[in-house]
Each structure stands twice: as structure tokens, then as C-alpha cells.
Design brief:
By secondary structure, the protein is an alpha/beta fold. The chain has 13 helices and 9 strands. The chain has 2 domains: about 160 residues, Rossmann fold, CATH 3.40.50; about 120 residues, N-(1-d-carboxylethyl)-l-norvaline Dehydrogenase, domain 2, CATH 1.10.1040. Strands 1, 2, 3, 4, 5, 6, 7, 8 and 9 form a 9-stranded mixed β-sheet that branches. The longest helix is centred in the middle third of the chain and has 29 residues.
């Protein structure tokens, strides 16, 4: 069993760290809000630390799941960051959805420090984290990835290395581009069915058994029809992810017209007060979108 630390106990990190503890590993956690770390220790055991550096000291693996590039830099190379305490040969696994640029930057810093770095963003949302059924997309050197994979498997249904540093983050961008188009298409389809006088439930029951079926349809159509959006993956976070993807696409000279359009629609939903609603809230504001 490994000595592990987990940095960031949000809706994703809290249960992910729990699976490491339930897997028998010696886990120390850090969270910016100390009360959350104390609650985690009360539930799962282990220990909590006052800083990322303290959490990372003497660990074999350090996992992190924070908000964005700046948050990630703060807990790694910032004052009191984990990188300053990582031991030689250890591995840092970053589950944050961040840019490929910061992944490559931190991979370089880790290599210089004598330890490994794997960018490993996840898909599956809060439910996936709680059920240990996340999809994990990884980039980085082969040896650190191979050593970390058994731990990641504790909270993942699928885990795969896609290439060198940054490849995991690039794959997550592909994932979010797909989701944006699917949610918009589902919102338009359900709104069209409603306006046409069709029974949305009956329509979905039929088309979900054919080529139109998707995870979004399977897991979101019912709450969309019922107008329930106070759960799931917040629009604020989706816009953060799309901004990363659109920025990367611009740098590579790739056109993403659908992703850019849906991002504009999400901006309108934000302006209408839907920032913390699930991404499927597009349907609520569809009649307002011009």
C-alpha cells in the first residue's frame, strides 16, 4: 500500500480521495477550507495537512483536483506548494481540468525535481466520482503513469494514457467539445418536440433506442423536461473548460464553430442567473436565445 496525499476536496476530490482510503492506502488530505479536510478525516480516517507541501511530504503519490490553471500552480509551485516537498521518484497526478500548457509546464518542473507528473483530467461528474466510475484521460511519461494507474483505477471505470505531457488535457478538451454539441442538440430536440405537441417522454423512449442515443440523453432528458437543473456540472465550469478548448484551437488554427456558438449560449444562461445550474439548463433559456 502506498503513502498518498490528495489536494482539493471539492465535489470530485472528496469521494476520489475516499476511494484511495477505502483501497487501504495511507492518505493525507489538504483542502483550502480546513473544515472540509477535517470532515473527510472524520469519515475516512487518515490525516489532514495545513499546506500542500505538508501533505506531499514523504508521499509516493500526490493527487490533485482543483479549479483551474492558477489554482493548480498555487498548490504545486506556489508558496507552500507540493512540488517543494515531493521526494525523488514520487508521482504527482493532476485530475484538474486545465490547459495543456500548464500540464507541460508542471511536467518540466517535476522532471527537474526528480519526480513524475501525469496530467489526468476526468469525466463522469459528481456521480462518477461518488460511484468510482470516472473516465480518466492521461498524458505524461510511461513509467509514472504505469505506477499510478492502479491507484487511479480505484475510482475509475476507464483509465488510459493518450501520449506525452498535455495529451490528457487535450483529450478532455475533445470530450467537452463533444458534450457541448450534444447538450445543445438535445435541448433543441426536446424544445422542438414540446412545441410540436409531442409527448417528450414517449419521443425519448423511442429515439433513445436508435442512433440518437447518448449519455446526455440517457441521463439528462428527464430532468430537462421537468425543469430541474440545481445539480450536476455547473455552467461556470463548462465555460471554463470551453475557454480552454477554444484557446487551444485558436493557437492550432482549428475552427470550432459549434463549440464557440454553444459557449455564447452558455454566456446568456449565466447572464440570466444560471451560472451554477447544470449544463442541461440550456433548454430553459432556449426560447430566449437569438
Amino acid at each position: 500500500m502506498a503513502k498518498v496525499s490528495f489536494i482539493g476536496l471539492g465535489v470530485m476530490g472528496y469521494p476520489m480521495a475516499g476511494y484511495l482510503a477505502k483501497g487501504g492506502h495511507d492518505v493525507t488530505v489538504y483542502n483550502r477550507t480546513g473544515a472540509k479536510a477535517e470532515a473527510w478525516v472524520k469519515e475516512y480516517g487518515g490525516a489532514h495537512a495545513a499546506t500542500p507541501a505538508e501533505a506531499a511530504k514523504d508521499c509516493d503519490f500526490v493527487m490533485a483536483c482543483v479549479g483551474n490553471d492558477d489554482d493548480l500552480r498555487a498548490v504545486t509551485t506556489g508558496e507552500g506548494g507540493a512540488f517543494g516537498a515531493m521526494r525523488k521518484g514520487a508521482v504527482f497526478v493532476d485530475h484538474t481540468t486545465a490547459s495543456a500548457k500548464v500540464a507541460r509546464e508542471l511536467h518540466g518542473a517535476a522532471t527537474a525535481g526528480g519526480f513524475g507528473f501525469v496530467d489526468a483530467p476526468v469525466s463522469g461528474g459528481q456521480a462518477g466520482a461518488e460511484n468510482g466510475a470516472l473516465t480518466v484521460m492521461c498524458g505524461g511519461d510511461e513509467a509514472p503513469y504505469a505506477s499510478a494507474e492502479p491507484l487511479i483505477d480505484l475510482y475509475a471505470k476507464s483509465c488510459r494514457r493518450l501520449g506525452d505531457s498535455g495529451a490528457g488535457q487535450l483529450c478532455k478538451m475533445v470530450n467537452q467539445i463533444c458534450i457541448a454539441g450534444l447538450v445543445q442538440g438535445l435541448a433543441e430536440a426536446l424544445e422542438f418536440a414540446n412545441r410540436s405537441g409531442l409527448d417528450g417522454r414517449a419521443v425519448v423512449d423511442v429515439i433513445s433506442k436508435g442512433a440518437a442515443q447518448s449519455w446526455q440523453m440517457e441521463n439528462r432528458w428527464q430532468t430537462m423536461v421537468q425543469g430541474e437543473f440545481d445539480f450536476g456540472f455547473a455552467i461556470d465550469w463548462m465555460r471554463k473548460d470551453l475557454a480552454i478548448a477554444l484557446g487551444e484551437a485558436k493557437a492550432e488554427g482549428v475552427s470550432l464553430p459549434i463549440a464557440a456558438l454553444v459557449d455564447q449560449f452558455y454566456a446568456q444562461v449565466q447572464a440570466a442567473g444560471g451560472s451554477r445550474q447544470d449544463t442541461s439548463a440550456l433548454i430553459r433559456h432556449l426560447p430566449e436565445i437569438k
